[in-house]
Amino acid sequence: MSQQNDTKFHDLPIGIASAGIRIESDSMGEIAVPAEHYWGAQTARALVHFAIGTERLPPALYHAYGIAKRAAAEVNASGGQLPEHKAHAIIQAAGEVASGALDDEFPLSMWQTGSGTQANMNVNEVIANRAIQLLGGRIGSKSPVHPNDDVNMAQSSNDSFPTAMHVATALAIQRQVRPAVEALADTIERKSSEWMDVVKIGRTHLMDAVPLMVGQEWSGWAAQLRSALAVLDRNCAGLFELAAGGTAVGTGTNAPPGFSRAIAARISELTGLPFRSAPNKFASLGGLDASAATMAGLRGIAIALIKIANDLRWLGSGPRCGIGEVRLPENEPGSSIMPGKINPTQCEAIIMIGTQILGLDAALASAAGQGNFQLNVMRPLAAYNLLTSAQLIADGANVFRTYTVEGVELNRQRIAEFLDRSLMLVTALSPIIGYDQAAKIAHEAYRQGISLRDAALASGLVDSDTFDKAVDPAAMAGRGFSGA
To answer: Is 193 a catalytic residue?
Structure first.
């Protein structure tokens, strides 16, 4: 291939019109690579040595890698370290990675080296071979674009993987998690406002308690979600500090002066998020503090979702032999043997999602404590757990809102029936006749199976006017009150 062809950009479509194998090489020697793929020798080795499980690093991580590799090429070109024709091709290929157009080129297991070197080299090889194709070279030749010398210029797996982790997670939170959870909270708040005048019986310890408004109950769920989002916002602040420029151990070996600030600024421009260079690269390479804190924020949202889903499935239990205060949307048949049975399937899915996230959080917290000297070697696990949790929350919140919360209806007759039968309304009599006497009335009503009003009047401790004035469920709830 002539030098002229090797430097001329060809705007070729994605794809390799080859079959069989080609031979590529790395520092370990030659190895066969599937000819129809852009990945190279190190990816081929990793597919053999890390054929573990079915878990793959999420596509979002590779998309973020594409952003980081593009930014690195732009910074290296602007500083004169990378020739313009190489930079142009690398930028084009990295943009295709970032867009998801090359997702099929990232086949590696998440169970790999703890620094993510295999993932980084997978990205470097794909971008290099695609850039070679764009420049008219021979795929697999490492010329005119080399995966290490050009695509990985001024970088190490040790700083590029945490950079991609932070970018991917921050994007997932801002573009997926927050919109989904905010939309769910908005829907719950709308229902809360609609039902703020409906009085119902409260329950503590799964037992009857004093009354409250349906809207008040729902306002608590929305407040939990809002509070969890606020905690997530605080906890994920460390994601905006990028390790890029620290290279192997945090000293910046092989990176030109100013590289770390320049690449962080460019990534910020490309994403619209306030990324900046981490002030201490030794902390950003050696620790997983920002990831652990972010995961704890996601865990908080999961806990709130579990609470809400559990409450709704209890309140919707029945339809005739449970609580049945709300009617949940009927989405699909619930039993393969019992005709007509409908189950709270969306609620169950949310509870499973939340439970899974609690486990992922525990694993990541353990991984965060596994840093040794200048590197934490649990990063693929951390990236997988963070991005999986973010997707589960975003997807779960969206379907839960769409197929359950928006369609919930009140069973007002059932609510009124429970309210009328409740013995805990006797609490309103305590200030008038004392706790002990009020308790005797409640026990007597329960023993005889009569109404609280009848038991109170029979006791002779209160008359009908006093009872009716004191035992007013709406007044006890505090009409419209939704604060603490």
So the answer is: no
